[in-house]
UniProtKB/TrEMBL annotation:
Topology with respect to the bilayer: Multi-pass membrane protein
Full protein name: Sugar ABC transporter permease
Native source organism of the sequence: Catellatospora methionotrophica
Segments passing through the bilayer: 71-89, 101-120, 150-173, 213-233, 258-280
Gene3D superfamilies xref list: MetI-like (1.10.3720.10)
Lineage: Bacteria, Bacillati, Actinomycetota, Actinomycetes, Micromonosporales
UniProt keyword Cell membrane, yes or no: yes
Keywords linked to the UniProt accession: Cell membrane, Membrane, Transmembrane, Transmembrane helix, Transport
């Protein structure tokens, strides 16, 4: 009976694991291999160049611009999303209608979101400038995506808007699991809503917050689709919205430097892995048990 169970499990897993190895692991391994070569992806055989591709990264102004912009996104986007999501989850606790409204952007693809917000930011006929004119704030009108000092912030605003809804639902579900008698005991002891939220709710749902930090940190190191569709260039103006994923894409499919692009991908892979591990360590807290 036991041997039959193991044979059944092996037979059930061999096909999906084979497909995973062929279509997921194999491309990863090929990318690691190509990162040490000079290959145009078409007609010539890969030529081994050692660590030359990796040494070029630190002299590549586009890659460094993307690294800088992704770093700013890493600082701003997760913090803004977590704070807004926690506030909205606490404010709409027990109100499911608002959660549906907040979650709605999750139903749209990234491409649709980018196109919609591109129209919002349109200088002459866009919704944002139109609203400012209607409020009598014509001096605030801007060419939002054409200003080097504003373009990246506009992209980050879209990332935040499109991400908040999911984490509102996640944190709301976590808050509903907090026992009500704990809240009542704190209220009887004279604790105000802010104190209860900071001292009781946050510690009890911290594991969900930690998951949010990690996922948002990984998302902040991407941003390719929004930048590709929304921005001038894309990546402009003056490389103000350049991100590492966009540089990888152009290096491979515009300039035909697949070996160098693979090196970028490997660098982004280890950077993302390091950020995830760092966030796990930084956000680690003692587990709070609920009786």
């Amino acid at each position: 009976m036991r041997h039959g169970k193991y044979r059944f499990l092996a037979g059930s897993l061999i096909v999906p694991l084979t497909l995973y190895g062929v279509f997921v692991l194999s491309p990863y391994l090929q990318a690691f291999q190509l990162a040490f070569t000079n290959w145009n992806g078409v007609d010539s055989a890969p030529v081994f160049t050692g660590f030359d591709n990796f040494s070029k990264l630190w002299d590549d102004p586009l890659f460094l611009a993307g690294l800088r912009n992704n770093g700013l996104m890493l600082l701003v986007v997760p913090l803004a999303v977590i704070v807004l999501a926690l506030a909205l989850a606490a404010g709409t606790r027990g109100t499911k209608v608002y959660r549906v409204v907040y979650f709605f952007p999750q139903l749209l693809s990234v491409a649709i979101i980018a196109v919609l917000w591109q129209f919002v930011y349109t200088p002459n006929s866009g919704l944002l400038n139109g609203a400012l004119s209607a409020l009598g704030l014509d001096s605030w009108r801007q060419s939002w995506l054409a200003e080097p000092n504003l373009a990246l912030w506009c992209v980050m605003a879209v990332m935040i808007w499109s991400s908040v809804g999911f984490y509102v639902v996640l944190f709301s579900a976590a808050m509903e699991s907090v026992p009500g008698d704990i809240m009542e005991a704190a209220a009887i002891d004279g604790a105000g809503p802010v104190t209860v939220f900071r001292r009781i709710t946050i510690p009890l749902i911290w594991e969900s917050v930690q998951v949010g930090w990690i996922y948002l940190g990984i998302a902040a190191l991407d941003g390719f689709a929004l930048v590709q569709i929304m921005t001038v260039g894309p990546g402009g103006p003056d490389n103000s919205t350049e991100v590492m994923g966009l540089g990888l894409y152009r290096t491979a499919f515009t300039f035909g430097k697949f070996g160098y692009a693979s090196a970028m991908g490997v660098a982004i892979f280890f950077l993302t892995l390091s950020i995830a591990v760092l966030l796990l360590r930084v956000t680690k807290r003692e587990r709070v048990e609920m009786a």
